[in-house]
């Protein structure tokens, strides 16, 4: 694993909204630069064998119209794909459906950049309860796995990842992630005291079994 503070600071986070055909939605965004080519980053994020090296084992048909399933996590359908620039997919988990939009580009001071947006219909009560950290912390942990794999070249075992999440370093990472999402929420217009309360509740959920 790489230094947790360095990883947290390497990610830009945003919170916004979007109007879809299905109604008004929340948008949680993350952006990070990587020292690999755009083509290599695309392969790491779209090839089943390579996804399993830093995230989770995935099965299914990874092409437009095909369905995928991450082991023990979300599944969905690939809705759009333009290699090596972007793809869009549904993100179906726990009986709820949302969308992910990863985009891949070149950066001036790095070889590539990944911009990920997670779009979901979230009612006001649920948003006030947990804020953007509800999904943001999970995506931060995923980017941590990707960055670690790129740096070391070694696969990230899901079991060792779970053990790391329960460690003092893992708990520190989740707390720093929660703090960062709290700041992004305030920047989007949330009252600081409301963002604080949501951040406290969401980190309590993430660390409950740690």
Strand order of the largest sheet: 1-2-8-7-6-5-4-3
Classify the fold: give the CATH topology.
Alpha-D-Glucose-1,6-Bisphosphate, Chain A, domain 4
What would the average pLDDT be, to the nearest integer? Answer: 94
Tell me the count of domains.
1
Radius of gyration of CA atoms, rounded to a whole number: 16 Å
Number of helices: 8
User: CATH architecture, please?
Assistant: 2-Layer Sandwich
Strand content: 25-35%
Series of H and E elements: HEEHHEEEEEEHHHHH
| Largest sheet: number of strands, sense, barrel closure | 8 strands, antiparallel
Q: Identify the CATH class.
A: Alpha Beta
- Give the termini distance in whole angstroms: 18 Å
Family: Belongs to the AHA1 family.
Pfam families: AHSA1
InterPro entries: ASHA1/2-like_C (IPR013538), START-like_dom_sf (IPR023393)
